[in-house]
Each structure stands twice: as C-alpha cells, then as structure tokens.
C-alpha cells in the first residue's frame, strides 16, 4: 500500500470561513464515491497510467477532507453562535419574565389598594346614608313639631284675643256699673268718705 502523508488538520482557533460552497462539496464527494464503484470493464487501463489515478484520488480525498474540515469548523462556529444566541435569548426571556412578574405584582398591589379604597368608600357611603336618613328623620320630626307649635301658637293667639275681648267687656261693665254717672258711684264715694273719716 502506498504511503499516504498525513493531511494537516484545520486550525479550529482560526476564524471559520464565512461561506462554503455546499454544492461543490457534494459534487466532489459524489465523484469520489462514484469512482470507487466504476466497473472493471469501463475503468481505464491501469498499465497506461499506473500512478496518475491513485494520485488523483489522493488529491481529491485531500481536497474533500480539507473542505469537510472547513465545513466542520463553520458548523462548529454556527453551533457556538446559535448556543450563544440561545443563551442570550433565554436571558432576555428570563429578564422579560421577571419584568412581567414585577408588573403583574404591581398591578395586583394596585388592584388590592383600589379594592380596599372601594370598600372604605362603600363603608363611608353607608355611614353617610345612615346619617342622611337620621337627619331626614330629625327634619321630619322638627317639621311636625313646628307644625304643632304653629297650631298651638294660633290657638294661644285666639285665646289671648278672646281674653282681651273678655277683659275689655268686663272693664266696660265695671265702669258702667261703678263708674261716674252710675247709680253705685255715690254710694262708693260715701263709703270712701266714711272710711277716711274714721281713720
């Protein structure tokens, strides 16, 4: 077997090529494997070119290995880039989830505060309604008392007018019965004179 020199391994630390012609690699690999399956009748005579065919196969294999190494390096680079992008995406997703959780907690706290304020406002409204009902009841009672006082005042005014009329009539009767010009007036004067004389 002919000695085969070792193919230098591609430097994985070097920057991977930006692009590899995949169609060209596929074509070279297909040609390489098809040559191994060529029938003996169709194969060219080895006696005519004893060393050209193995050399060509070796060159083709070397080229395929070199391109495969380049493609492998490119795939490793892309895999590393995808892993880094996946990790960055996961970190961004975790950050976004944390922010969303914080936002949800803030909304929960706000909703809880609003609920407490609504309950307190409802209690205040209930207390205010109770005070308004009590004030309305007191106002209705005050109206009733005012109406009663008005009726009592009207009755008192009527009684006073009646009493004044009675007093006026009584005064007139007294003056008419005992005043100057009445028949009792001389008698009253005589009584008064006699009482003064006896003193």
Question: What would your notes on this structure say?
Answer:
With 199 residues, the protein is mainly α. It has helices spanning 22-36, 52-178, 185-198. It is built from 3 helices and no strands. It starts with 21 loop residues before the first helix and ends with a helix. The protein is 78% helix and 0% strand. The protein has a domain at 63-188. Residues 1-21 are annotated as: Disordered. Residues 65-152 form a coiled coil. Keywords: Coiled coil.
**Average predicted local confidence, pLDDT:** 77
Please summarize the sheet with the most strands. none
Give the DSSP E fraction (strand runs of 2 or more residues): under 5%
Q: Helices and strands: which structural class?
A: mainly alpha
Radius of gyration: 66 Å
Features:
coiled coil; mainly alpha; rod-shaped; 199 residues; single chain
How does the SSE layout of this entry go?
Blueprint (H helix, E strand, L loop, with lengths): L21 H15 L15 H127 L6 H14 L1
Helix pairs in contact: 1-2
Tell me briefly what this model is.
The chain is mainly α and 199 residues long.
């Amino acid at each position: 077997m002919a000695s085969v020199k070792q193919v230098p391994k591609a430097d994985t630390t070097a920057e991977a090529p930006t692009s590899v012609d995949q169609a060209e690699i596929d074509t070279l690999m297909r040609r390489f494997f098809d040559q191994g399956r060529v029938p003996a009748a169709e194969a060219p005579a080895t006696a005519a070119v004893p060393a050209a065919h193995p050399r060509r196969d070796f060159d083709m294999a070397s080229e395929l290995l070199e391109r495969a190494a380049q493609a492998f390096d490119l795939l490793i680079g892309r895999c590393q880039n995808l892993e880094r992008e996946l990790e960055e995406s996961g970190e961004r997703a975790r950050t976004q989830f944390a922010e969303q959780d914080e936002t949800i907690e803030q909304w929960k706290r706000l909703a809880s505060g609003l609920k407490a304020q609504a309950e307190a406002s409802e209690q205040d409204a209930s207390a205010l309604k109770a005070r308004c009902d009590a004030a309305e009841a007191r106002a209705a009672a005050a109206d009733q008392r005012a109406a009663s006082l008005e009726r009592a005042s009207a009755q008192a005014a009527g009684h006073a007018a009646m009493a004044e009329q009675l007093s006026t009539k009584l005064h007139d009767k007294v003056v008419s019965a005992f005043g100057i010009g009445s028949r009792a007036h001389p008698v009253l004067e005589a009584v008064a004179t006699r009482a003064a004389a006896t003193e």
